[in-house]
Amino acid sequence: MAATDHIAATPTFDLAKEFKEFDETKMGVKGIAESGITSIPKMFIHPPEVLSTLKKPTSHTKKAIPLIDLSSFNVPTKRHQLVEQIREAISSWGFFQVINHGIPLSVLNETLDAIKAFHDQPHEVKSKLYNRDNDEQGVMYQSNYDLYRAKVATWHDSLTIWTAPEEKRGKEEDIPEICKKEMEAWESHSSKVAEILFELLSEGLGVEAERFKKLGFFDARLLVGHYYPYCPQPDLTVGLKPHTDAGFTVLLQNQVGGLQVKHCDEWVDVEPIPGALTINIGDIIQVISNDNYVSVEHRVLAKASKEPRISAVTFFNMHTNASFEPLPELLSSDKPAIYRKSTVAEYIESYYSKGLNCKYFLDKIKIVN
After folding, report:
1. Tens digits of per-residue pLDDT, 217-261?
2. Nearest Cα to 323, choosing from 235, 215, 210, 174?
3. What does the pLDDT read at residue 9?
4. Distance in angstroms (rounded) separating the CA atoms of residues 192 and 178
């Protein structure tokens, strides 16, 4: 029997009802995992076409996303080589890892420890921040931010903190004291890394170094602390479903692993490297680059590891009111615009209405000659 056959064969199963009951407990996936279950609830079981992709290929050569050393950023004679490495990584993979990025290892470890400490708090403490009414602003703790838009749930909980724009920014008193100092430090350090990489991405396109920064990719910033608990049946669910991002992402992960990137129709593991950060661009940057850079799907596997997977993420995006289109500096009669002008608001509406499917949006705004 297929993994999801029993769901279809149970006419009394009400997915919406199960979503609501789960949400109202405010316990999160961590609460389920710690309840002593040996099998996961039906609402987390993914369809066969997804589960079949979780099996690792046995005959393929092991692949790895590019690893780039940023230590030569301020060395004029080596900067061009660094720009080329990043340009090649983003044009072929959409992802890369960086080392020697300037963030002390102590800051990275403290960030991950603080996120774990938040999620390890008693239910009655965390639940005060549990919120789904205003999930596009402020500070909140929740599980599956797209729960009521999804067809199936995924195995993770999240702490989210909006830091920009001002109208979305979380109140200082709402940021949990148990991780406040560490999350503020993480934002500051990850923003400095983003500034460096935006310069290199701009130069990789042959435009001025400040081009991406001037486009407003620091105008909307979101910090996320993900927690992926032990899963008794990791072959039946995923930690985070396949998706793409919007703008620019800086990610820190602990050593549990589970992040995968889709490359040449194959899911490739992003192996944790101590001290490294994982970087990727999103759909809007693909449009702005006129397909010189690519946004790719990625996901997180559920794990049977007793140690949880922890990640800290900073998302850098344009303001909701902003518009975007291919940079005019990249266009010519031989290389016309591939996409029409669009807005961040249109992107967000398309992204969520189609289940985090970027291809729908890119196809929607593609210019047909």
Report:
1. 999 999 999 999 999 999 999 999 999 999 999 999 999 999 999
2. 215
3. 39
4. 24
pLDDT of residue 135: 63
Classify 293 as helix, strand or coil: coil
336: β partners: none
pLDDT at 10: 46
> Which residues in the chain show pLDDT less than 50?
1-11, 59
Answer whether 96's CB lies under 8 Å from 66's CB: yes
pLDDT per position as a tens digit, 68-87 = 999 999 999 999 999 999 99
Kindly list the distances between the CA atom of residue 187 and the CA atoms of 158, 223, 319, in Å, as whole numbers in the listed order. Answer: 16, 7, 18
| pLDDT confidence of residue 59 | 47
Instruction: Quote the CA–CA distance of 130 and 172 in Å, as a whole number.
Output: 17
Measuring CA to CA, which residue among 5, 26, 199, 200 is closest to residue 128? 26
CB count within 10 Å of CB 257 equals 16
Distance from chain centroid for Cα 173: 26
**How is residue 350 written in tokens?**
């398309």
CA dist list (Å): 354 to 10, 106, 318:
27, 40, 21
pLDDT the model gives residue 146: 87
Q: Which residues have C-beta within 8 Å of that of residue 23, sequence separation ≥ 6?
A: 132, 143, 147, 148
Tell the burial category of 124 from Cβ atoms under 10 Å away from its Cβ (0-12, 13-18, 19+): exposed
- The encoded tokens of residue 253 equal 């992960």
Q: Are 136 and 170 in contact (CB under 8 A)?
A: no
**Nearest in space to 73 (alpha carbons), one of 61, 85, 88:** 85
CA–CA distance, 52 with 161 (Å, rounded to integer): 35
Whole-model pTM?
0.94
Q: Kindly give the pairing relationship between strand 95-99 and strand 67-69.
A: parallel
